[in-house]
Design a protein that fits this description.
The protein is mainly beta. The chain contains six helices and 28 strands.
Length: about 550
């Protein structure tokens, strides 16, 4: 075994070349280890050839790699030669496909980029419904002159459509439940993206160990066979301990049964205990519960949640019993959640100076939320837009203690340029009280990992003449963030948060609270693990540290 070293590698870093050869260097924190990887000298010949081929794939067709050795090291001396440049690009493709060609005339030719562009064009064609197409891409290389001629020819042919959809599901799960997760029907225009979306939504039922969507093409018709294998282990239990900035140490327990009495129904219980928050929640979910009127192949899901909770705010304590009945529908980029909520809330002041109403409140209200989500991933998005609008309204003639309306709108934008990701988020909240007052906990508070990060969760409120941090009826909460890779799966981020909360409804003249900060993101299969530190610009004594799992945008 000897160390491998590169000489004259002015075009690429040594780390990049080691990675291209499949060699792993010690991690950055393993400072005691030699940064050069070791190789079996018997493999040095094949590695030499692989390195020369790598340079050729990068457009250096005259590259040469000479090998030499000493007692401890194998040395690759690199002579890259002159690169080949793109002389001409000819294309008869439409602009939507031509836009996927990311290089231009005069760029250095890269074989991997050429292959990736070809793959992205084919993927776009299938997403657009063209399963029958004639696509030809060529790169003609003049080795002597070091120039490359590229051509693209595309004939799309007619759109394809979905044909028959055959479903083989476990005996205790009906076909309507599976069909309710599909984002297409028989006769719909074909799209490979819809196939992938449907795979995800079927998987989201959490009722199957195996999911197979097999496509069979016949001319411009795509027939589909869906084969599903029942989940063998239906009961899942989770227990854990942790720490939250705003709550301190906490313990959690979750019990869940998947495919409860068949048809992919789900029953779960959640328990949480910390010094400031305690709750017990029971949830029952039934997919394809109710057919959509006039659309017999489409169904609404049903979910019922019962909750008991205790929570300590800054100036009062809340005890709440609640039940929420949801009717839900997810379809492609759209989601609708509508239903009825019943809350019994007890408010008790912890100080005598704040203008907070104590007592018991009974709230009964219909609610609706509408979401448009174009993000490329719900776990760790890099591109897209998320828009949501939520409205609830309590009425005294429906036995509610208060007549009111509460509206919350939110927009998230996320865009990645090469390696840097820019994100923005804006939230608007408005409350109108028509008769009697709402309990303090139903008003707006801010702060936390998803809000103004100079404050703990719900630690930023409005101000009145008697005390700070009371609930508001108008909220504007905004965030700007930029993140960039630092090392392997770790990103660094900087952010700016600005929040305005007013006690009065539709009042926008209150000063904003500004915060800046920085953080780290570690990417995992279940989303980024985030650590953020935020500080108030106007008051440096106000700061907070936040730890969370999951994307804020």
């Amino acid at each position: 075994m000897k160390y491998l070293e590169f000489r004259n590698n002015t075009l690429f870093t040594s780390s990049h070349l080691y990675e291209s050869l499949g060699l792993k260097q010690p991690a950055w924190y393993e400072f005691w280890k030699e940064k050069r990887p070791m190789i079996n000298t018997k493999l040095s010949g094949s590695l030499q050839e692989s390195l020369q081929n790598y340079y050729k794939s990068e457009g250096f067709f005259h590259a040469a790699v000479q090998k030499s050795e000493n007692n401890s090291t194998v040395i690759f001396e690199i002579t890259p030669g002159s690169p080949a440049y793109i002389k001409e690009i000819k294309s008869d493709m439409q602009p939507r496909y031509q836009a996927l060609v990311t290089y231009k005339e005069g760029d250095r030719f890269n074989a991997n980029t050429f292959i990736d562009i070809k793959k992205s064009i084919k993927k776009k064609l299938l997403n657009d419904g063209y399963c029958n197409y004639n696509f030809d891409s060529k790169a003609r290389v003049d080795i002597v002159k070091n120039i490359v001629y590229i051509s693209y020819k595309l004939q799309k042919n007619p759109l394809c459509h979905f044909g028959t959809i055959a479903i083989q599901a476990p005996e205790n799960i009906s076909e309507k439940v599976v069909k309710s997760r599909l984002t297409f029907r028989e006769g719909s225009p074909y799209s490979s993206k819809r196939i992938n979306e449907s795979y995800s939504t079927i998987s989201g039922l959490d009722a199957f160990d195996g999911i197979q969507l097999a496509q069979k093409q016949k001319s411009d018709i795509i027939n589909l066979n869906i084969n599903l294998k029942a989940k063998s282990k239906r009961i899942r239990q989770e227990i854990g301990v942790g720490y939250e900035t705003n709550l301190g140490p906490k313990g959690i327990f979750r019990w869940e049964e998947r495919n409860f009495h068949g048809d992919a129904k789900k029953l779960s219980f959640d328990f949480k205990y910390s010094k400031r928050e305690k709750y017990i929640k029971n949830s029952f979910f039934q997919p394809a519960f109710l057919p959509v009127p006039y659309y017999p192949d489409y169904y609404l899901d049903m979910k019922n949640e019962f909750l008991y909770s205790e929570y300590e705010y800054e100036n009062f304590n809340e005890v709440k019993y609640a039940d929420y009945l949801h009717l839900l529908k997810d379809y492609h980029l759209f989601s609708v959640d509508m239903g009825l909520g019943l809350e019994k809330i007890e408010i008790k002041k912890t100080g005598e100076i704040c203008n907070i109403s104590e007592g018991n409140f009974l709230l009964f209200f219909p609610f609706m939320q509408f979401i448009i989500d174009t993000r490329d991933s719900k776990i760790d998005p890099k591109q897209g837009i998320y828009v949501s609008a939520y409205l609830e309204s309590g009425l005294k003639y429906l036995a509610s203690s208060t007549s009111y309306s509460k509206f919350i709108a939110e927009m998230r934008l996320i865009k990645t340029f090469k390696h840097t990701t820019l994100a923005a988020k804006g939230k608007l909240g408005l409350i109108s009280e028509f008769q009697n007052a709402l309990p303090e906990s139903k008003l707006f508070f801010a702060g936390g990992a998803f809000s103004n990060r100079a404050y703990g969760y719900n630690r930023l409120g409005a101000r009145d003449s008697m005390c700070d941090e009371v609930g508001g009826q108008t909220l504007v909460d905004t965030t700007l963030e930029a993140s960039h890779p630092l090392y392997e799966k770790i990103d660094g981020a900087v952010f700016y948060d600005a929040t305005m909360i007013s006690q009065k409804s539709f009042e926008f003249t209150i000063d904003f609270v500004h915060a800046v900060g920085f953080g780290l993101r570690y990417h995992t299969p279940i989303g980024p693990v985030k650590l953020d530190f935020g500080i108030n610009i106007e008051d440096s004594t106000q700061y907070a540290l936040h730890f969370q799992i999951g994307q804020s945008f």
